[in-house]
Amino acid sequence: MSRFLLPLLLLPAALCKDVLFGESGGIPTTSDLATAESNKALLEDLLASLSPGDSLTVENSTFIIQGGVHATGLADVTLRIEGTLKFFDDIDSWPLMDEPDPYIANRDVQEALHFTDFQSVTLTGGGTIDGSGLAWWGFPGIGYLIRKENRPRLMVMDDCKDITIEHILFKDSAYWTTLFNNVDGLVIRHSEVSARRPWDNHDGQHNLYDLSALNTDGFDVTGRNVHIHDCKIWNQDDCIAVKDNYKGGVSENMLFERIEASGMGLVIGSIGDTHVRNITFRDSVMKNTYKGVYMKFRDGTEGVIEDVTYENIRIENPSQWPIWIGPAQQAENETCAIMWPAHGKCEPAPNQFRNILLKNITVANPPRRGLGMREPMLGLVFGSEEKPVDGVVFEDVVFEGLRGGEEYYACKNVVEGTGVARGNTFPVPSCFTDETDSE
Ligand SMILES: *[C@@H]1O[C@H](CO)[C@@H](O)[C@H](O)[C@H]1NC(C)=O
Ligand SMILES: *[C@@H]1O[C@H](CO)[C@@H](O)[C@H](O)[C@H]1NC(C)=O
Ligand SMILES: *[C@@H]1O[C@H](CO)[C@@H](O)[C@H](O)[C@H]1NC(C)=O
Ligand SMILES: *[C@@H]1O[C@H](CO)[C@@H](O)[C@H](O)[C@H]1NC(C)=O
């Protein structure tokens, strides 16, 4: 090789820069409004300055930062968080949106981090993004009544492509931890979501005190080609939720595996008028969770959830329904009473579940209710009258420690003959065909 060619080949690499946040003027430790605003302005400037091949490192210190950080159009860059980005906890100074949130009533706070049109961006580094959620959750039980859902998400990405997130702890989000809107290509691995109040006794249980940090969803995704694996989630709402694609497109081709989750479960929904297909959750465990397998329609008439597999999942000590395929159990729509099925009635909106497989699911110690807490709460399969569930197979779906004779709460509106129980499934939902080994 010519000795003139070698320096030329090295040139592109030499042009790439690694920007250091602290060295560029980021102020660690101090927590006041001026510092938080200054750190935010610097972070936005540095992000905007990155070219393909560059990286930005937040060094191993804690930087207090104001919310409403925006960045757009980054391509081929690495963001390395080695320390902590901690959002400033003064609610009154938090920036508001120009127009209120079109999807959630009375919500006008900006997100903590809001990124759009990123392509081939990696977020890594072993550090923490901390939402200072406690300030927003407020006094247990009362904070929610005051702020409702007008709280910032920790990180939102709109219309991004080929994103990798690894070795990041997402801590104490005020509201949903993350939302990937209309993503195409997302890998999240070796990362953690933790949303817990202080003085939590860390015994791995959720109680009412913990639940008052409501709406702290973990990874919420819409779009396609998503792989989330080897992550831990402990929060007070949906752990993972495949949601409506806000561009109206399909949410499809997603695999979630080796997740340790404890919260409202591994969720599809809540879904309105959109289409979700080809989603797999597998090889995961949910200990001391509220719910487990949870698929829910909110409202609408044209929604479809199809080609879904939950496989090799263990659910231990759930405190609510461990298996739920039906209408959303929340007050978003009047089609189902919030207390249903304990009280009130439910008429699911006319949406379609199709081709659902639950395979090798074990539920240990399901919750109980009723007189003397004798009646176990196993779950339900509840389609709509207009469009009954078309194809639902339970293979080796087993509840441990039942005395026999127990029933699912409801098995209703399933196309005749398309609900099938196989293998060691026990008990068999009443509207399924029993093809288990015991027959
Ligand atoms: C940051 O520093 C702490 C203590 O000094 C250390 O335990 C931790 O591993 C460091 N984190 C990274 C990502 O280097
Ligand atoms: C379903 O999604 C997986 C990714 O999770 C993908 O590999 C597979 O090709 C998809 N199948 C179909 C039929 O699109
Ligand atoms: C509830 O759902 C119905 C039908 O799907 C819809 O027309 C109505 O607007 C929804 N109501 C609310 C409060 O979202
Ligand atoms: C069933 O799922 C459990 C995890 O809950 C796993 O350990 C076991 O290997 C699975 N069994 C089969 C036959 O795949």
From TrEMBL:
Gene3D superfamilies for this protein: Single-stranded right-handed beta-helix, Pectin lyase-like
Record bears the keyword Glycoprotein: yes
Pfam families in UniProt: Glyco_hydro_28
InterPro entries found in the cross-reference section: Glyco_hydro_28, PbH1, Pectin_lyas_fold, Pectin_lyase_fold/virulence
Zinc listed as a keyword: no
Signal peptide: 1-16
Keywords: Disulfide bond, Glycoprotein, Glycosidase, Hydrolase, Signal
Family in the record: Belongs to the glycosyl hydrolase 28 family.
Protein name according to UniProt: Uncharacterized protein
Gene source species: Tetraparma gracilis
